[in-house]
Structure formats: structure tokens, C-alpha cells
């Protein structure tokens, strides 16, 4: 559905300095019907990527293909027509205060010249689809933050696009409303078959709703793949972000080890780690951990406190043997320095 091939965007520096490379030779594929998260810190190139996807920026080189159409090669009327296949949802919905929810949803259809009868029919469909029945005649000031964002989503879907681009759609919402909006986005994908790209800095959003994720750093793709593959790869930069551990515990008389077991084919739960420690003559206690179920599989990072039979910290030789045993089972383990 979406293919980026060698996408590069370079901005000339003001005053004749070094050029700014916002996007650097990006190759990326987003499959049809997928919810794909794009994550990265400020300055990573996320905003420039969205502008290239919508044709607001022309790439310096490379191609941006959406549903087989090279957006980067279009101009004028052909570009405007192609944009109708792309819906946009923003962090702040930027609704027109003087218009009701229904009138805001209808606005892009008015601009496109859709006849009034068809506009009203489409708005009625969208109001029900996003769960705003009974609120369609309210103005933005009369709506909650979640309801305002539902209007924004409905507006983005008004022209029946094949792709929905969401730029930080939940960062201004409280946790409960965030979950409701993410559930709505997933339900819309399932019902309409649309492809969704979510630009976000919130890893909880990625865990909750995305099928795949891509990490941008300095305008380059650092890691990309299915959510389970990325989360269960302890060597990848996104694993610790998706499944964070709390700070190392203090006041414990034991050797403490961090264990990432998502990529193991034989050790699937934290109990398996405790059992393996026991087989090596160590008593293991879970002192901290984060466990997520992704794609029906447990992916986790846990901290184990390791002691011998007398309750003292296990020996250095015992620790090395345990870490070696974990490594043989596909678990990445590292002693925590306190």
C-alpha cells in the first residue's frame, strides 16, 4: 500500500552553511490494512516524512508510492486528486469553532464539491461510525477532548481515503480517552480495511494498537518490523523502549540480573527463568519486571535476584554459569551494576 524507496529530503541551510538532511535514503513498506507506528525523538524526521507522504514536500530524491501512485511525481490537479486517498488526523483537531461537529466533518466534502445530499448522507454515516450520535449538532466548545478527536477522525475519513495518517493523535488526551481513541482506530481499520500510519512518541500507543513499528533516528530507519519481532529482539534499540524496566532495586543482598526472554523459543515466561536458575543451583527471586502479551505471546524483561542455599549472593562463577545457560536458550542476560 505504501512504499518508500530511497526517500531523501535535504533542506538548504540558511546563510550558506551545511545542508540539513531531514530524511536519508529511507526504504520502507507498509502493507495494506496494517497499523504502522513511526517513532523517534524530536528531530528524527517524522514530520518531514508525513509531509512527503502527503505531497506537501517534494523529496530531494527517491519515490513515495501510495496504492501504486508515485505522490512525489504529481503536481496540481493530479496531486489534489491523489490526496483524496489520504486522510489526516492531527494532535489537535483544529476544528472550526463556528461550525458544529457535523459541519466540521462535512467541510472537506464541501471543498471537494460533493453535492449537499451526498454530504449529509456521508456525515450521518461517519457520526455513527465514530460514536458521536447525539453530539453532531454540538460546537467544539461543547465537546470533550475525546469527542473533538472523534470529529477529527471522522473528518479525516470523509472522502473515504485508503490511508489514514495520524500525527500524535492521542498525546493531548488522558490515558482513559487515549485507550478509547486507539480502540476506535483499530475498529475503523477492521471495518473499513484502511491502512493506518501513526506518528507518535508514546510507546504505549505502539504496544496498544500497532501491527508494526519503525524507529527513525537522524532521518534514517534504525529498526523496522512486526511488533512482536521488534519487541522480542533484545539486541534491538526498541525492545527496552517497548518493554521498559523500573530502576534497579536497592538494599537487596543478592546479585541482580536483567533478563530479556522474548526471543527465546524454550523460555516463554518468567517462571521458566526461575526454574532454570534452580537447575543451576541458584535461588532466583523476581524483584522487578515488565511483561506484555503481543500477538498471543509473552514478551518480557525481568530482574532476578540470585542467591545460594545459605541466602547469600551466588558466586561469580555461579553467575557466569547461569548467564551462559540463559544465552544458550536465547535469553539475553546482564548483571545490574548498583
TrEMBL record:
Q: Name one Pfam family in it.
A: ABC_tran
Source species, domain of life: Bacteria
Keywords of the record, alphabetical order, are: Amino-acid transport, ATP-binding, Cell membrane, Membrane, Nucleotide-binding, Translocase, Transport
In this protein, which residues make up the domain named ABC transporter?
2-243
Tell me the PROSITE patterns matching this sequence.
ABC_TRANSPORTER_2 (PS50893)
Keyword Translocase part of the UniProt annotation? yes
Molecular-function annotations in GO: ATP binding
The name under which this protein is listed is Methionine ABC transporter ATP-binding protein
Give the classification, highest ranks: Bacteria, Bacillati, Actinomycetota, Actinomycetes, Micrococcales
